Amino acid sequence: MPPEYSYTTPSSSNFTENPLYTTTTLASITTEWIAPENYLSFEELQNVQSILANNFQTGELGTALNLNVTGMAMENPVEPPAEPPAYTSPEERAEITEQTWAEQSLANNTEVLENYQEVAYDVPHSLRLSIEPAAVNEMEIITPSISLYVATEEGSMITALGDASDPWMCTVSVKSGPGSLAGIMTVPFVDGIASFDDLRVDTAGDDYILEFTVTYPANANLSPVESLPFPAAGRPLGLMYTNYIELVAQDATFTVTPDIWDEAIDMIVDVAVISATEWECTASLEAGDNSGVLSGTLTATIAAGMRNVVFDDLSIDEPGMDYMVHVTCWSSGYEKGTISASSPPFHVHSFPVTGLLRKSGVVFSYKGPYQEVSSLISNFDASLGSMDCTGCPESDPHPVFRKKRDTSGQINLKALKNVHFPECFGRGSC
Description:
By secondary structure, the chain is mainly beta.
C-alpha cells in the first residue's frame, strides 16, 4: 500500500502574487477627453468658413473691417478620422484587388491633398445664363437643362461660391407667359454652375420669359437675369403597348390595344388633355422575313376623351417569328398631327383543325358458291384490308387473293380489317 501523506492548504495571507499576473481595468487608466475652451468642431469650422466666404463675396467683410478687400483664400478644415472598417472575413481580407495597398493609399492621399488645396475666392459681379431654354414642350422636362453661373467683373466664371457645405442658391420664376413652372425651381451652385435639371412649363404658349435670381445668400447683391423669349409647344403624345402579345395561333383572332401615352410625364394620358381630340387610327403588319398577311378590321375611330386604341379582330394567315403590329393615329386637334408605335415582337404558330376520329374494324367469313360473291371479289380494294380465298378459280385476276384448290367445289372467304360488303346484305350465306 502507498504511504499516506497529509496536505494543508496554505493561508492566503502568506501567498505572494506575481505582479505580472495582476490585471488593471481599462477604466482605471483611461480618462474621458474633454474639449478645451473655444474648441471648434469640424461642423463649426465649416460654418465659420461659409460665413467668411459669404461675407467676403457679398462685400460685408470689407465693410466690417473698413478695408477694400479684393481677394481671399482659405483651406478646407481637416475632417476628423473615420472609423476603421469593420472586420469582415479572412477570405475578403485576402481578396486580390486591381491595385496594391500602396497604390490605393497613394490614390486616397492624392484625393485628400486635392480636397485641402487652398481655394481662392473672387468677388461676384453678375449672374449670367450659359444655356438658354430651347425646344420646350408642355409638361416635358426642358432639355438641355437651363444653367447659369456667376461671373467676375472681367467676365470669368467663379467656381467657388460660398462653401460646399452651404452653397449659394438660384431660383427661377415666370417673368411673362401664359402658364407657370413645375418641377424643382431652386437649385444650388455646384462648382460654380446652377443647373435646372427638373424644370417644366405646364401650359403651351408663346413669348415665355423666365427670370433667374440668386436667393441665397439674401445679400448677394446680384441683379436678376432674364432668358430670351421662347415658345412652349403642345403636350407630346405617343402610343404605348402595355398589354404584350407573345404567341398567336395561325388564323386565330387576337387583340391589340395600345394606350395614348403622355410622353412628357411617361404615363397614360389624362382624359382632360384629350377631351376634345378625336383620332383616326390604322393598323398594319411589320412582317420582316415572314410572308403573313394581317386581316381583320384595320381602321378605327377613337372618340374624344378615349385613351385606348382597340383592334380586336386581327389575324395572321402564316406562321412566323418576330411579327409586329404598327398602329398610326392622326388627329386634326393634335398639334403634331400623328402618333404611332410598333408592338413588341410576337410569334405566330401553326394551329391545325383537329377533331375526334373513330376507327372500326370488321372481320367476317363466307362459305358457299363462288358465283354468289365473284363480283365482290373482283372489285375488292386492297386498301380496305386483306382477303384469303380457298377454292377460287385460278383465272380470277384480282391480285390480293391467295387462290387455293378445293375439290368440294365450295370456297372459303375471309375478309379482315375495315371491310364492308354492301352486296351481301340480305343474303343468308353472308
